[in-house]
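for the record, two folds in this file. i put them one after another cuz i was lazy. first one right below, seq on top, structure tokens after. the second one comes after a little note so u can tell where it starts
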Amino acid sequence: MGIGYYNSLVTMQAAGPTVTAAARTSLLNPQAKLLLPAGFFAYIGQKLKIVAQGQLSNVVTTPGTILLDIGVGATGTTVVLSSGNLGMSAIAHTTLPIWFEADLTVRSLGTSATFMPQGRVTGKPFNTVAAAAADTIGSETTLMIPGTTPATTTFDSTIANLVDFACTFSLTTAAITIQQYEVISCNWGG
């Protein structure tokens, strides 16, 4: 039996940019965009874990949605995990904490390699429906990602892959800033 360990590949050294765009925008500082060399993904079952914490704000009237995603590939734009459009609460929130965590497990290698991606996001600004509900301690909503049946996604494991974490708002009335971010390689040896 092998010895397992976690290896922190990158952490973000300062708060990321505050994003309000209704277009796909990276949530990371350039320093935190990890470039994995060609051949980094070497065996089926190899796994990356991505963890991010930050703050999210939304408005009362028409709070809109947010889509969080992880991209890889030469420019970090091949989306391998998408949250889909996540509803935000119809209660105004200003810079409240959120927590995002995702696992990407290699299922096949090559130019059409696959990941099995799954994750979750937790925070008061999220809601399963855009309805007003009283905020109380412990009223954080956890949403599973994806919001549909999990399925593999395709990427090229033979090239250098830039790992990026991005979001897309449906409106420009919300804001997100990632304060902490880490990419972990879940390896084994022996």
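(here's the note) second protein begins now
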Amino acid sequence: MELLTRLEKKVLSWTHTLPHLPASARKWLGENVWWIILIGVIISVITSLMGLQDLLRYVAVIDRPLDALNYGYRDVTAYKAFAAVVEFSLSIITLVLSALSIKPLQMKQKKGWVLLFGAWLVSVIAIVINAVLSLDPFSLVFSLIFGAIFSAISGYFLFEIHSQYGHERKVFNKSTTKS
């Protein structure tokens, strides 16, 4: 957890010099980020289910070259199946962290922002790992450039709402408070 806090402070120090959104836009984004993430999670679940079907088919045909041709897969290797499993696993981790952040974000708790920050970090790591696993120099450069652009933009918006999630709201039980 301390590593996550240090990373948060480091990235936050980079964002102080950037131009900021107007206060009203930051406020709107902070109040509505939970349903934006909800829509993204729903879309990701649908695409992940379709991706899982393809992944299982891809892994199943590793040792059956004729089945691979029937499914339209050529040059199926254990390495390519491994790379696909790694890519799918990292996307599921990002999806789960994003899904877990929805309720705390709706309640304006810091926990929601931290979970979203963790999902952002996993997506940055996934971009680098998937680019390296592609074993293609053109794909590596293309993935890293566009991945860096995507990460910078999403990180910018994430840190624009950072100040709105600084403290967890305390919930008091009426039976424990004195009258």
